[in-house]
Write a structure and sequence with these properties.
- Strand 5 (115-120) and strand 6 form a beta hairpin.
- The chain has five helices and eleven strands; from the N terminus they run αββααββββββββααβ.
- Strands 1, 2, 5, 6, 8 and 9 form a six-stranded mixed sheet that branches.
- By secondary structure, it is α+β, with helices and mostly antiparallel strands.
Length: 221
Amino acid sequence: MSGKLHTAMLAGATAMLLASTAPAWVHPHVFAEARLDVMVNADQTVKSLRHLWRFDDLFSSTVLMEFDKNSDLKLDDAELKEVSDTVQASLAEFGYFQIVTLNGKDVEMKPPAQLMANYEDNQLIILFESEPKAPLKLDGKIGFGVYDPTFYTAIDFVEDENMSVADLPSTCTRSVIRPDPDEALAQNQSTLTEAFFNDPAGTDMSKIFATRLELNCPAKG
């Protein structure tokens, strides 16, 4: 793989997850529609997060041109494996852009065992599944979201139903939060530094704009 290709793919891969509510001064270059499915165990712990990202035609065609080694205008299994390996290596440094919290505290996630790439209907599709590093009980407020610290890619959960929970206990409630950028800035004014306003891509504060799924489950005594 050429250095130019790896750099281009790295830039795209490290920018895959950003809520579509980016600040007005930020201009994403890559667009994707996403789905997030939270899987729940019988003991009311989180089993895994299943991610699916479907990229825009322009970015997808760029990936096709870069990875189509035999120039047959499609990506075979070996070429898709190279795409998935490149994306996985790039995302690993940033925790796969997942936000998982329990009562406001970050929850550590295991890296996915495998990332899969498909190319269907002229669109690149990325799928992966990750699990909490320690048992994560549905107890209190649990949040799930995605964000891109580079502000490079806009990812859109088109419908609230695209952030779903399988087997959600009846005692829990589910809501999808789509932050208003101006309100998010105002609410976090005291914690935002000059560096954020000068170069928001150099900070991790882009997470305040991320669309997120929140579960509220009564705390168990």
